[in-house]
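Technical appendix A lists one of the benchmark inputs used to test multi-chain prediction within the project. The record comprises four sequence entries:
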Amino acid sequence: MISEKLRNDARPIWNRIFSHPFVVELYSGKLPFEKFRYYILQDYAYLIGVIRAFSIISAKSEIEISGEILEIARMEATTEIENYRKLLNRMNLTMEDAIKTEVAPTNLAYVNFIISTSFLGNEYEGLASLLPCFWSYLEIWKRNSHLLEKNENEIYIQWAKEYGSKEYQALVKKLINLMDRAVGNYEKLRKIFLTGSRYEYAFWEMAYTMERWHI
Amino acid sequence: MISEKLRNDARPIWNRIFSHPFVVELYSGKLPFEKFRYYILQDYAYLIGVIRAFSIISAKSEIEISGEILEIARMEATTEIENYRKLLNRMNLTMEDAIKTEVAPTNLAYVNFIISTSFLGNEYEGLASLLPCFWSYLEIWKRNSHLLEKNENEIYIQWAKEYGSKEYQALVKKLINLMDRAVGNYEKLRKIFLTGSRYEYAFWEMAYTMERWHI
Amino acid sequence: MISEKLRNDARPIWNRIFSHPFVVELYSGKLPFEKFRYYILQDYAYLIGVIRAFSIISAKSEIEISGEILEIARMEATTEIENYRKLLNRMNLTMEDAIKTEVAPTNLAYVNFIISTSFLGNEYEGLASLLPCFWSYLEIWKRNSHLLEKNENEIYIQWAKEYGSKEYQALVKKLINLMDRAVGNYEKLRKIFLTGSRYEYAFWEMAYTMERWHI
Amino acid sequence: MISEKLRNDARPIWNRIFSHPFVVELYSGKLPFEKFRYYILQDYAYLIGVIRAFSIISAKSEIEISGEILEIARMEATTEIENYRKLLNRMNLTMEDAIKTEVAPTNLAYVNFIISTSFLGNEYEGLASLLPCFWSYLEIWKRNSHLLEKNENEIYIQWAKEYGSKEYQALVKKLINLMDRAVGNYEKLRKIFLTGSRYEYAFWEMAYTMERWHI
């Protein structure tokens, strides 16, 4: 399976993701709230980028794939955006706060990477740029959910549990199945998947250090 | 309102659409079934094209618009495709019949027009290429639904009534409202809307004459 | 070689192109001038479309291919447009006449086909949509240049000889060589190449019948 | 003039570019050679990205603009790539060294920024993402060329003088003139131009610190 090969090739990066302090402290409840707040506000621009990338991929795909991709994109653009709004509200933030947040360098780089890849490449290359995010969030949950037992931050717990839900598992499974239909040049897919994985790591690092533009 | 201006500028073309023999005979029940069968089989490629075009538009749009466009695209890719499948079945046809149907010249031209326009232009130019189809189907229903009373062809009646449904009216209203948010060069939008309207007329003509490639 | 396979599969269409009355009468000098005038004025929109399509292909290609494609696109956008302007002038026409000419249905369909294909597919799929035009013009010259001996129309002769020039032969050779580097799904390339060939035939037919929109 | 407004709004960033140690030491000759070597090897991926972005912009533009953009893109893809190859050779490097160089984070982010912007936006938004690079190199030369007098590094001198050549000045002038034809939303152009300017600064910083992926 292509997805397994990709996963294997990215293992060293993913292992560092699983143990990144942002991730571990988020699950254990020790993450300073201002870091979480930063992360959530940055997440908006990334979510929009994901919707754009899925839209481009859908335009290029065979219809059966297109239907599934559009369903995911729509879910992101409606349910996910709605969930996101609710989360903001629980944190005493509004969508306007998210919209006017300056997109940090790593975030901007990541978003432009998934959009460029989806535009320049074929549908599977686009998918390979998006899969590390969706898939690694599930794996993070699997590896770290036991930490939730001692977590006393309700917002962190609620955030984390979404990635352990049956719906989320089904979504990731669907994306993996689509990836496994890929034909052609594995090397290209591999390079894209590794870059996406690097950006996943960098995104956690960005949030932990609350990265800002230096200029 | 931009939509009203576009509609006015396209009036001569639309009037010819409303009275096209395919349209009138379909509503009155006199349309030879082989012409309807041809039309329905061609419709598949057009539906796929619409989904692709909406996907491209969504990728370029502000997020609020993106969400609405994706909802429409997804509905086309799931509900509409499902309705389409059921209609085929009532006609003793299958999706395979539709998929292997050779796309007729006018249909191919129309599909490539909406895709090119959505790719080369901005989101409103893309919308202007798609609106004549959705909108004129509603107007056709308004003008011709009275003919259904004497129509004895259950398949034609069922097909027509979809365009008189509240859901369909709401969809068209949504698209018109999006169109009215357009800014910038009206001339470009006008040219696109007129070409889309011409293709609508040409599509009915294609179906009535059961157009084939001459080579 | 992929190009040879494509050429073989398109043979029946190409044979009809070679003997199309527009082509034969153009080479023999018997073509009514108003048909040639129509053809030349339509050619403008097609030339622009070719430049757009090559640009899209260039954006997706490996750099060595990109360089060659851009050289061709630039040549079309400068030398060819300049040659075109001179030809117009010899015919007592101006660029403004060409620009304001309404693009005929077949021409618009052809242009949107090459643009959509270049955007939705990979670089080789884009090339496969453009190759039938360039290549068939060379083959037309090979098969019909003997007719030029009795041709007394200086404008037709000058127009035709361009396609027998060393530069043009080298250009076609370059495009064929690029095509032969294609990897992957031959079926897709074949379908595109055949559609492009059909549009070539349809373009000659459009010019011979001086096609207009019916609406 | 739009270009003047953009330039003014970016002034604080540009001033920091003009005095960036990489820039100053390159002109004065004091830049450690390994930093220059790093910069030149990274430059390859950026140059390819510029060619891709110009290609996308060309596909969307009116034909007169298209011709100029393609001329620039082609020049980049041929003359510039050839000059680049010669420079590599003088530094005892080959194109293979450049091609196999891992693209650093800032470089990858910059390239994907210009490609995404050119794809998602209109032709002027694409241009606004590319202009800071071309224009600031000319301004750097104007402000720092006096330092070349004491510079004893022939490679640095030769590199710098290219940006003081008449050809380069004409190229920048052409791009500025195209930018000044922009219509519509200045805010969007401004945001893009500022981001491009930030990436310019970041690129110099990347080279000075010889940035690597941390994962």
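Chain A touches chain B at residues 48, 51-53, 55-56, 58-60, 63, 66-67, 70-71, 73-74, 77-78, 81, 115 (CB under 8 Å). The CA atoms of residues 22 and 205 of chain A lie 7 Å apart. Comparable benchmark entries are summarised in Table A2.
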